[in-house]
Design a protein that fits this description.
Uracil-DNA Glycosylase, subunit E, about 180 residues, alpha/beta, 4-stranded parallel β-sheet
Length: about 180
């Protein structure tokens, strides 16, 4: 077997394992939908609790819900779920990434239609267009003021992500 084909099969096995892990934390009712771009290419993942997204989401939750320890189970129990628009954008150029994200719009539209979340939180500014298009495709099930635009918590934007998530959580939960 060719080395690159073997690597691709290993990577697909890992992606399948991560998707199984993600699905094990899917709540019965998805009320709050986080929408990400893809599983990170650096080997971390939200649902393995070792990514910047996990770290700064944890910090935001613990700031808003003081005295509560954030865990993946808590995230699930509160009705939160992370959906990625595409499997991976590793090694892709800008146009390829845009196309990969765009190809996730029908999948997201189907998910929104099936789950009917009350709120959607974009975990990367560039995902907002895909969210709006997916929502429009299913008849605008989610009110515009229930869609939050957050930056990805990478490249120095982690504090901005955390602050925006704290703000969104306070609005969602009616906390002054």
């Amino acid at each position: 077997m060719e080395l690159s084909k073997a690597k691709e099969e290993i990577d697909m096995t890992k992606v399948q394992d991560l998707e199984k892990l993600r699905n094990s934390f899917k709540p019965d009712k998805v009320t709050y939908l986080f929408v990400g771009e893809s599983i990170p290419s650096n080997g971390t993942f939200f649902y393995t609790a070792d990514s910047p997204l996990y770290k700064y989401t944890k910090e935001a939750f613990e700031e808003v819900f003081q005295g509560v320890e954030f865990t993946l189970k808590l995230f699930m129990d509160k009705g939160f779920y992370l959906f990625d628009l595409t499997e991976s954008v590793a090694g892709m150029g800008y146009k390829e990434k845009i196309n990969a994200v765009a190809s996730g719009i029908p999948k997201l539209a189907h998910f929104i239609e099936a789950e009917k979340p009350e709120y959607v939180l974009s975990v990367k500014n560039t995902n907002l267009s895909a969210i709006i298009m997916s929502n429009a495709e299913v008849g605008d099930l989610i009110s515009e003021d229930h869609i939050f635009d957050l930056p990805a918590p990478i490249f120095g934007s982690h504090h901005y992500y955390k602050d925006k998530l704290v703000e969104a959580l306070k609005i969602i939960y009616g906390i002054a």
